[in-house]
């Protein structure tokens, strides 16, 4: 729909008013680019994108084991804590800074964010979660959606897997996906992945999972807006019980998830 | 004259109170210690700088304990706008323990005050063993703290660092209901950032702590970090020692950085957990006595 309308407008106007032609042609190009960007974003945040997201619960498996997450309300509590005050929040802020550095073609700034993103991890399992998905994302995106900036980044960090929030932000900046939409979609995918984990772990019905995701709509939107205006020096977390869940998960006897 | 001229610039709630009309005198303290190994391999203090209210004491230590530096703040507490900077360097092959004489108290800041700043820098040389075993920081209501602990560990150097916070001493009826807290760790090995962490609370900190998966019933917390090539090998035996402490204590290891988190209902429970975790690590990793420096028993 968004692609069709400007195209029709350009047909009707190119006949008479010359000064408008370049403008209208630009609009058509912009619309096509926007559609391309939307398509990429949908692909990269889809659960079918092969980065292994399904195998990580970000400590949720321990919270379920302990009886702390037992229903939709407590699942929403857990995920909101991750996104507002925990690892999801950290990743959201880092995403915004990585995107801006990449969009400005500032390799040094991007590499600094990448180093911080790899270090800003509460436990070995959440570090694995971030780095393994980040490496998988970079690998598959370089093949399916190649871009010289992705290749240059991969060459600079050949010996180390960089966190998912950074590699996806880089891809979004390189392929001209707008920052706000990209970050919003990224944080939604974090929430959706944890809902999916919760549905399997508690267990909950599929409709319950969608209730949870609907309830998290405001959390994701607010965190997106807040992350865009947070300086790296002011980045921090306030949910130590999430960190304890993730640490205790490392010694959980029976586990479905890698984090 | 100066006083009356400054009055209109103060917030109304302050200018109405004659007792608070004069802004606090701010402190800007610093201490810098540099240790080097002498020709016989013994750790020697090579450089010392101290500026009030920072003072450093060098007590005699029991056999088996490393040379010790005890930091104290002679102002008896810190408030808004105060600054402290502590820089400790353990040269190659040195062994040393740095600690604090008592709990640090963070008092109420006045509206408009800058946060209290505490910056701790630790440099650990190749083959050195350094400990930063700070006693707890007590946060009073309306305190504002911005603290950073940055460490750089070179080569085969090892570091054991502890920092802890008490959200008001509940047994004394103290409450920490509002304020700001920004408590950052940055651990580097040979210049590369290995671990970063920041605890951040602001505004209604009682409500923030009570949020789901926040602090629960805890009024005290601690973070212990051990850096060394043997960190991952120490994780399992350390967990055995921590098992008695329950679900409020857990450990993890990311590459060569071992991290212990403690959430406890009150300061004594938190200190007990820190003693066990730090004692176990200094014994297992450093071959040192389990017992922490004597100031911890005062």
Give structural notes.
The complex is a heterodimer of chains A (259) and B (298). With 259 residues, chain A is mostly helical. Chain A has one domain (56-249): Urease accessory protein UreF (Orthogonal Bundle), CATH 1.10.4190. Chain A is built from 13 helices and no strands. Chain A has helices at 4-13, 20-44, 60-65, 72-85, 87-103, 107-119, 124-144, 148-156, 164-174, 179-201, 206-215, 217-228, 240-249. In chain A, helix 4 packs across helix 5 (87-103), helix 5 (87-103) runs antiparallel to helix 6 and helix 7 runs parallel beside helix 9. The longest helix of chain A has 25 residues, at 20-44. Residues 1-19 of chain A have low confidence and may be disordered. Chain B has 298 residues and is of the alpha/beta class. Chain B has one domain (27-297). In chain B, the strands form two sheets. In chain B, strands 3, 4, 6, 7, 9, 10, 12, 15, 16 and 17 form a ten-stranded mixed sheet that branches. In chain B, strands 2-1-5-8-11-13-14 form a seven-stranded mixed sheet. In chain B, helix 4 crosses helix 5 (267-286). The termini of chain B are far apart. The model of chain B is unreliable at 1-16 (pLDDT under 50). The chains are: A mainly alpha (259), B alpha/beta (298). At the A-B interface, helix 4, helix 6, helix 7 and helix 13 of A face strand 13, strand 14, strand 16 and strand 17 of B. Chain A: This is Urease accessory protein UreF. Chain A: UreD, UreF and UreG form a complex that acts as a GTP-hydrolysis-dependent molecular chaperone, activating the urease apoprotein by helping to assemble the nickel containing metallocenter of UreC. The UreE protein probably delivers the nickel. Chain A: It is found in: Cytoplasm.
């Amino acid at each position: 729909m968004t692609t069709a309308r400007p195209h029709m407008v350009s047909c009707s106007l190119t006949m008479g008013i010359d000064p408008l032609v370049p403008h209208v042609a630009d609009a058509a190009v912009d619309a096509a680019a926007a559609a391309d960007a939307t398509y990429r974003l949908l692909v990269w945040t889809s659960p079918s994108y092969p980065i292994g997201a399904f195998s990580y619960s970000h400590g949720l498996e321990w919270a379920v084991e302990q009886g702390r997450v037992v229903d939709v309300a407590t699942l929403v509590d857990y995920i909101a804590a991750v996104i507002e005050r925990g690892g999801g929040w950290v990743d959201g802020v880092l995403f915004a800074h990585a995107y801006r550095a990449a969009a400005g073609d500032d390799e040094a700034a991007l590499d600094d964010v990448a180093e911080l993103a790899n270090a800003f991890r509460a436990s070995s399992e959440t570090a694995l979660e971030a780095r393994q998905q980040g490496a998988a994302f970079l690998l598959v995106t370089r093949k399916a959606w190649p871009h010289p900036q992705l290749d240059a980044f991969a060459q600079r960090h050949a010996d180390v897997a960089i966190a998912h929030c950074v590699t996806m932000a880089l891809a979004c900046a390189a392929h001209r996906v707008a920052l706000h939409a990209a970050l919003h979609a990224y944080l939604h995918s974090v929430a959706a992945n944890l809902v999916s984990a919760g549905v399997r772990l508690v267990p909950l019905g599929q409709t319950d999972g969608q209730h949870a995701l609907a309830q998290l709509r405001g959390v994701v939107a607010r965190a997106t807006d807040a992350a865009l205006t947070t300086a790296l020096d002011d980045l921090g977390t306030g949910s130590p019980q999430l960190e304890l869940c993730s640490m205790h998960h490392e010694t959980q006897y029976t586990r479905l998830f890698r984090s | 004259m100066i006083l009356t001229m400054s009055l209109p610039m103060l917030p109304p709630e302050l200018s109405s109170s004659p007792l608070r009309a004069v802004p606090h005198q701010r402190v800007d303290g610093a201490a810098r210690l540099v240790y080097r190994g002498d020709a016989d391999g013994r750790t020697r203090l090579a450089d010392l700088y101290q500026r009030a209210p920072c003072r450093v004491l060098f007590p005699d230590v029991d056999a088996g304990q490393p040379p010790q530096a005890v930091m104290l703040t002679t102002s008896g507490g810190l408030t808004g706008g105060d600054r402290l900077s502590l820089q400790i360097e353990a040269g190659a092959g040195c062994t040393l323990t740095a600690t604090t004489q008592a709990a640090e108290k963070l008092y109420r800041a006045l509206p408009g005050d800058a946060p209290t700043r505490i910056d701790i820098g630790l440099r650990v040389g190749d083959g050195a063993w350094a400990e930063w075993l700070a006693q707890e920081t007590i946060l009073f209501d309306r305190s504002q703290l911005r603290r950073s602990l940055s460490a750089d560990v070179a080569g085969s150097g090892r570091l054991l660092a502890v920092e802890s916070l008490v959200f008001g001493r509940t047994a004394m009826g103290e409450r920490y209901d509002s304020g700001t807290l920004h408590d950052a760790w940055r651990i580097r090995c040979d210049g590369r950032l290995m671990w970063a962490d920041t605890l951040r609370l602001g505004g209604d900190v009682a409500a923030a702590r009570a949020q789901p998966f926040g602090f629960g019933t805890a009024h005290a917390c601690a973070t212990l970090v051990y850096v060394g090539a043997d960190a991952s090998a120490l994780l399992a035996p350390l967990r055995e020692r921590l098992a008695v402490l329950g679900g409020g204590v857990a450990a993890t290891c990311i590459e060569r950085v071992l991290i212990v988190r403690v959430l406890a209902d009150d300061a004594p429970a938190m200190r007990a957990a820190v003693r066990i975790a730090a004692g176990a690590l200094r014994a297992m990793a450093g071959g040192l006595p389990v017992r922490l420096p004597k100031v911890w028993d005062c």
